# Entry
Amino acid sequence: MLNYTGTPPLAAIADTDSRQLIAAELRSLIARIEISMRLIDAAMEREDDSAIAGSSEIVVLDDITPRYATASAALNACRAELDHALQQLSESGSAA
# Structure
C-alpha cells in the first residue's frame, strides 16, 4: 500500500502535474487488477487440473468456480471503469 504521509494536496500541484499523478495512479490500479485476474485464472486452472487428475470423470466445481468467476467479473468491471476514468482524464487534459 502506498503511504501518502507528507504528500502535498493536489490543489497545490500544477494542473498538468496533478493529472499526470492521477493517471499514473490509475495505471497502477489497472496493473494490480490485471495481476489479480491472472492469479484468479491460475487458481481456477489448478482447481480444474486437480479435479481432473484425481478422477477419470469430469467434476464441476460448483462450490469454488462461481466464487472465482464472481471475483473475476467484479475485477473486470472495475478495470473497465478505471480505463474509462483514465480515458476521461486524458481527454480533459488534451482539451485544456
Observations:
- The longest helix spans residues 15-53.
- The mean pLDDT is 80.
